[in-house]
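Re: beginner question about structure tokens

> Can someone show what the tokenized structure looks like for a real chain? I only ever see the sequence side.

Sure, here's an example I had lying around. Input first:
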Amino acid sequence: MKINKTRLGLVMGEKSLNFIALAKISNVSRTTLSYINNGKSCKPEIAIKIAKALDVEVKDLIED
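And the corresponding structure tokens:
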């Protein structure tokens, strides 16, 4: 599953979160978040954790 980094960045900005804060509230490592931000795919479970932490639907974050 590939997360759209532009959408991720916009939602993070709206919530005033950086990757360190997102890592803490999502329980996803900063390394994994960095991989995702650099265009790597992730497991659905990781996308769900990120979406839940950002209070958005997974479909709002994934690439079309």
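Each token stands for a local structural state, so reading them left to right follows the chain. The mean pLDDT is 96.
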